[in-house]
Design a protein that fits this description.
By secondary structure, the chain is mainly alpha-helical. The protein has 2 domains: 2-77, no CATH class; 99-264, no CATH class. The chain contains 11 helices and 8 strands. It has helices spanning 2-16, 27-32, 40-48, 53-64, 99-103, 123-134, 138-155, 185-197, 199-207, 222-229, 239-249; strands at 37-38, 70-72, 75-77, 119-121, 158-159, 172-174, 253-254, 263-264. The strands form 3 sheets. Strands 1-3-2 form a 3-stranded antiparallel β-sheet. A 3-stranded antiparallel β-sheet has the order 4-6-5. Helix 1 packs parallel to helix 3, helix 1 packs antiparallel against helix 4 (53-64) and helix 6 packs across helix 7 (138-155). It is globular and about 60 Å long.
Length: 272
């Protein structure tokens, strides 16, 4: 399988005509944000980013020296000793400063009567708005919106937060400028830090419960893992939802569209 993967990488690099990666990004940095998973989808992205097949081959050989490397289907998941899984690094054509975002964001006291202080985004409204303002179809609007969420959850400019598991936030909460002046800001920042600190361990441990192409990720056990890994320090009852949105927006799901959620790919799951 390794030989097939390397051949695929060579072909992809030839097709893109690029053998040089961005000077400020190593292959390991790139793969970390792809879930430390080397397979068909990430090989395409690695080639587009200019990472050569020799470097990919060397990384796989390094992983071969450990017993922790996972091979599942056409994928190789590198061990944490070589590569730590990071939240997906993705960039959307929708920016948080765009006028469409501002128009669909509530005032900070817009939901005060419901007991929620914060600037909440009307996500469905935003997807409809960019179809009009940018001429996108539903699938393009969905793709860029999911990327927008993943990008800004990663940077901490968005959150989906409440400490009450029986309550649902009004929407994704923007945490920039005056919109960050909310009572829960310290707890939100702590939950974001815990999420990112434990991202590698949580994804790897949860993947054993998820079958690629069949089951959902994160699994029903994810929040139990969160509480154990953070020793009960996490207060965000919706961390699992944030992680799911980040991985979908990061392209770790196959077949996601305006009408289909898609299915997870490694490292989120294992093939049977």
């Amino acid at each position: 399988m390794r030989t097939l993967i390397i051949i695929a990488a060579i072909c992809l690099l030839t097709a893109t005509g690029s053998g040089r990666a961005a000077a400020n990004e190593t292959l390991t940095d790139f793969i970390s944000a792809q879930g430390c998973a080397i397979g068909p989808a990430t090989l395409v992205r690695a080639a587009e980013a200019g990472h050569g097949h020799d470097a990919i081959d060397a990384l796989i050989k390094q992983a071969d020296a450990t017993d922790e490397t996972i091979r599942t289907g056409d994928w190789i998941v590198l061990p944490s000793s070589i590569c730590r899984i990071q939240p997906p690094d993705v960039h959307s054509k929708i920016q948080i400063t765009d006028p469409e975002v501002a128009a669909l964001t509530s005032d900070i006291d817009g939901y005060a009567k419901l007991g929620d202080r914060g600037c909440f985004l009307d996500g469905p409204g935003l997807m409809e708005r960019v179809q009009v303002t940018r001429g996108w179809d539903r699938n393009r609007a969905n793709l860029e919106y999911m990327r927008f969420l993943a990008e800004n959850l990663r940077t901490g400019d968005l959150a989906f937060y409440t400490n009450d598991p029986l309550s649902t936030p009004p929407g994704f909460q923007i945490l920039r400028g005056d919109c960050a002046d909310v009572p829960e800001i310290d707890a939100i920042r702590q939950s974001q830090a815990l999420r990112d600190r434990e991202f590698d361990a949580l994804i790897r441990e949860d993947a054993a419960n998820v079958i690629c192409g069949r089951d959902d990720s994160p699994s029903y056990r994810f929040m139990d893992l969160v509480m154990r890994r953070t020793r009960g320090e996490n207060t965000n009852a919706w961390m699992v939802f944030e992680v799911k949105i980040m991985t979908i927006g990061g392209g770790w799901y196959v077949g996601n569209s305006a009408t289909q959620k898609g299915t997870p790919r490694p490292p989120l799951c294992r093939f049977q």
